[in-house]
Amino acid sequence: MEEIDKLSINTLRLLGVEMINKANSGHPGIVLGSAPIVHTLFTRHINIDVTNTEWWDRDRFVLSAGHASALLYALYHLSGYKISMDDLKNFRQYNSPTPGHPEYGYVPGVEMTTGPLGQGLSSACGMALAEKYLAAHFNKESVKVMDHYTYVLCGDGDLQEGIAQEAASFAGHLKLNKLIVLYDSNDIQLDGEVELSNTESVKGKFEAMGWNYELVSDGNDIDAIDRAIIRAKNSSSPSIIEIKTIIGYGSPDSGTNICHGKPLGTDKTNELRKNLGYNYGPFEVPKEVYEFYKKNVTERGISTSHVWAENLHVYHSKYKELYKELNDFFFNSFEIDYSRFKEYTEAESTRKIVGSYLDEFSNQCANLIGGSADLTPSTFVKGADGNFEPQFLYGRNIRFGVREHAMGAIVNGINLHGGLKAFGSGFFVFSDYMKPAIRLASLMKLPSIFIFSHDTVCVGEDGPTHEPIEHFAMLRSMPNCNVIRPADAKESFAAVDIALHSEHTPTVITTSRQGLPQLEGTSKTGVRYGAYVVYQTNEKFDGILISSGSELSIAIDTAKLLEKDGLSIRVVSMPSPYLFDKQEEKYQEEILPSSCQRRFAIEMGATMPWYKYSRNVKGIDTFGISAPIKYMHEHFGFTASALAADFKKIK
């Protein structure tokens, strides 16, 4: 190791520790142990352009161990990103651009929001898949426009999360060889020694999943780390490099869990300086360290970016059609011929309708990619052009297998990479498994698409384990998450169209198992407002029924039944409360006038979300039952006659 490397690594260590001390909050253990890892990666391998953070062919670095954010910000400061010394001093403070965990779209250079362990590693699998697909689709032997790596820094906690196991299995199966995981293996976690809760062989497990395994026995040996990364880059499989480090290296608490998430404080930090031979004060960076990083990270990355831009110019002159398509992919600028979409007149399940519309969108949008969690025959959601496989990299149907946890994160990773628009699908009840990934998509303002079929107890014979109850309430309560529940073909088309054109919001589309009628009053445009009037016979009305999805037709039947008793009823379709809440107050008042409080909300799910719009709600606040679908509506009171009787009781 050269002296400048040692000085740079210790600068990273002390910057991170001082940030945590000043904030009186953070995780110094991994900062001290992992600094040599990220230093080696960034000064010898990674290609980034700090002046163009959206450069398509940059290497991706995902800090899956998001609690190491102080190390990341110190690294990015030295690398030339727009993170100032004052920003480092304001670590974890109010309105600071250096928050407690890395946040995508908020901190320059951060590829995704991390913190929930396992999510970063899993989304990185999606990034690596996107690179592999785009490389196969666009690269030519003479000119490569997509040729980069996805690097991950993770710890013991990441690898213990179930989602990471699913994602690693997925990546090994698909031979995502440009995925390189740097595993900070220090044998310590928050509760104590790792061996107290986990004694498996990481090497044996990952090799069994088709990964290349490398071991670096000394985490301070940057030449050994460098050689391991080189071998990983030449592997035909994804690679995990286990790097044995010492948590809290150099501090009085090194090798113990004490320093995992507790600031060192002044006295221990001074002792750390002495142990490392680091003779600089708090937040002091030696000039030669800045110069070293400028040359080996900033300028090297910018130079690589410029070479790529020159190659892209050559690519443009040689392959004009592919160049245009490449731009269409990354700017999602496909023109849609809406006349090609089927019009439905007969009853059909919205799962089949949404599936057919997604197929047609896939025919016209060549960057649309995704699939189901081993449920394609049930969800009717699949990608086009065959299956994406190691021997066929042009397929856009991803066989996620029974890996719902990882599927959500992988979809996020593909969308974060850019160039592709990804979706994933499963049964609505199993959105439980995907909720953390959906939440991260919402937090990152990422327009991922999640399509869930079998959205009510009308699943029937599969019983209560497969019948969602609280799931609408769960996802509708999530900030920046657009849940759309279409009632028929017109609303289904609008749902898919909205999802595909969303820019900053993930979309959850839920669909029915059972066939539903095509309704006269539904509207593609109405869905864009979240709610609209779908049925009304008189200008003056005695009450309002509010519903969505498969219950909308029942609500209309209920209104017609009530009319026989002399009551005039307005029926409002509300496929997306999220969109309705975004409308101007004037529109909301037009649809749900405050003068009419005789309202009745109807949905076969938890009642909780509907009290915002009505004091009277008919829902299901118990678990479902196992029975054929014909029994479901009567058992739970979702027939026109039962609902009409309930409405009459409302004063």
Fold and architecture overview:
The chain contains 24 helices and 19 strands. It has 651 residues and is α/β, with parallel strands linked by helices. The chain folds into 3 domains: 3-304, 3-Layer(aba) Sandwich (Rossmann fold); 338-516, Thiamin diphosphate (ThDP)-binding fold, Pyr/PP domains (Rossmann fold, 3-Layer(aba) Sandwich); 529-648, Rossmann fold, CATH 3.40.50. The strands form 5 sheets. It has a 5-stranded parallel sheet with strand order 1-2-3-7-6, sandwiched between helices. Strands 9-10-11-13-12 form a 5-stranded parallel sheet, with helices on both faces. A 5-stranded mixed sheet has the order 15-17-16-18-19, covered by helices on one side. Strand 4 and strand 5 (192-193) form a beta hairpin. The model has no long low-confidence stretch (mean pLDDT 97).
Question: What fraction of the residues are assigned to beta strands by DSSP?
Answer: 5-15%
Coarse structural class: alpha/beta
- CATH C-level label of the largest domain: Alpha Beta
Biggest sheet character: 5 strands, parallel
Number of helices: 24
Largest sheet strand order: 1-2-3-7-6
The coarse overall form would be elongated
User: Under the CATH scheme, which architecture of the largest domain would be assigned?
Assistant: 3-Layer(aba) Sandwich
What is the helical fraction, as a range of percent? 40-55%
Q: Return the domain count.
A: 3
End-to-end distance: 81 Å
Give the C-alpha Rg.
27 Å
Uncertain parts: none
Mean pLDDT: 97
CATH superfamily annotation of the largest domain: Thiamin diphosphate (ThDP)-binding fold, Pyr/PP domains
Instruction: Name the assembly state.
Output: single chain
What name does CATH use for the topology of the largest domain?
Rossmann fold
Q: Give a count of the beta strands, DSSP E runs of length 2 or more.
A: 19
